[in-house]
Specification:
Blueprint: E1 4-19, E2 25-35, E3 39-49, E4 58-68, E5 74-86, E6 89-98, E7 103-111, E8 116-123
Length: about 120
């Protein structure tokens, strides 16, 4: 198991819906909050699915965001992963490439009742 390097807690800040070239629904969910060692974090989780799969219980997700470090510098991050829905909770696991060359694994859950996405960060 890899070493845990921190935790994060992000508040949902709205969705944007659209369609892609395949005619699928796209969902971009914006979040902002704090992460250990990263300070303020802003980012977007994006997923897509066929109209007929609107009630799916799992799928793929992408993360794109920035971390505003306590020293005033900024790190970008791009992640790929999966989500699983169980009731009002969506579990999300991603592998994130950071602009400084680091690689992290993120394991968290979104609570649709509180609109909080929180979890743990691991070094890869």
């Amino acid at each position: 198991m890899s070493e845990q390097i921190g935790e994060f807690s992000l508040k949902h800040d709205g969705n944007t819906y659209g369609t892609n070239s395949a005619g699928e629904i796209t969902v971009a969910s914006n979040f902002k909050g704090e992460a250990t060692e990263f300070g303020a974090v802003w980012g977007t989780l994006t997923s897509s699915h066929a109209l007929s799969d609107s009630n799916a219980t799992s799928g793929e997700v992408q993360w794109v965001g920035d971390a505003f470090l306590p020293d005033g510098s900024v790190l970008g991050g791009i992640g790929q992963g999966t989500w699983e829905r169980s009731g009002h909770e969506w579990k999300v696991t991603m592998h994130v490439d950071v602009s400084n060359g680091d690689k992290h694994r993120s394991e968290g859950a979104m609570d649709l009742e509180t609109l909080i996405y929180s979890g743990k960060l691991f070094k890869e």
